[in-house]
Structures are given as C-alpha cells and as structure tokens.
Amino acid sequence: MMYAVIRIRSTINANREIRDTLKMLNLHKINSCTIIHPNPSYKGMLQKVKDYVTWGEIDDETLRLLLEKRAKVENVDEAIKKLKEGVKLKEITNPCIRLHPPRKGYKSIKKPYHMGGSAGYRGKDINELIRRML
C-alpha cells in the first residue's frame, strides 16, 4: 500500500514548520504529487500539513497512469515493482510529479474532505482526483 499526496494550498502566512514539512515531502508547488509509503514518520508529517495537502491510498491502475503520463520513467512496470518493494520515488524519477488543476475544480480547499472540502485524508477517492488531474 502506498499513499499519493497532493498539495492543494499555498504556504502564504503558514508556519515555518509547515513549510519545512512540505519541503521534506518534496511538495514545492500547488498541484504537485508524490508517492510515499505509510510509516509512522510520514503519517506524522501528513498530520502536520493536513490543511495544505490531500492524500489517500493509490491503486495500481492509477499509479500506472500517473507514471506513464506525467513522470519521466522509461519502464513503468519496473518502476511500479520498485515502488512496491519500498524504493523511494526520488530514486526512480523526479520526486515531485506536477499535475494539472483538477477538471471541475476543487470543492473547497479550506474544509476537510469529510466535511465536503478537499483537504486531508480521502482514502480511495484520491484515485478519482488524480484521474481528473491527468
């Protein structure tokens, strides 16, 4: 299982810790995406920046589309295999994958996902968002 993390908000007037955490996650710009493995340190980082990003479990089909269309990867099957083994994305390709803004837009970037917004944990629904952004 891997998480896709997408930055949805700017860091203007944000705390320095939040800006530093987004840099550690390699999310430098809005609508950028990275793939991480859910371990305790990453989960703590996600909780710190939960108002600025959205994340969820990415499925194999969406991961394949993401790597084919937006990442500069020569062999997609080999890259997916390495990611599942625990290799970090930055060892395979650029650690940050740039995406288009989603078709039909975000609902609200100021509310959490469970309240009808876009920020925070969204589970399997991240796959639908990524497909709208490809």
How would you characterize this protein structure?
- The chain is α+β, with helices and mostly antiparallel strands and 134 residues long.
- The chain has a single domain, classed as 2-Layer Sandwich (Ribosomal Protein L30, Chain: A), CATH 3.30.1390.20.
- 34% of the residues lie in helices and 14% in strands.
- It is built from 5 helices and 5 strands, in the order E-H-E-H-E-H-H-E-E-H.
- It has helices at 16-24, 40-48, 60-69, 76-85, 126-133; strands at 3-7, 32-36, 53-57, 97-98, 120-121.
- A 5-stranded mixed sheet has the order 4-2-1-3-5, covered by helices on one side.
- The model has no long low-confidence stretch (mean pLDDT 91).
Brief characterization of the structure:
This protein is of the alpha+beta class and 134 residues long.
Helix content: 25-40%
Number of separate structural domains: 1
Sheet with most strands: strand arrangement: 4-2-1-3-5
Characterize the biggest β-sheet. Answer: 5 strands, mixed
Number of strands: 5
Classified by CATH, the class is: Alpha Beta
Strand content: 5-15%
Would you give the CATH topology? Ribosomal Protein L30, Chain: A
Q: Report how far the terminal alpha carbons are from each other.
A: 21 Å
CATH architecture annotation: 2-Layer Sandwich
Order of helices and strands: EHEHEHHEEH
Shape: globular
Low-confidence segments, given as residue ranges, are none
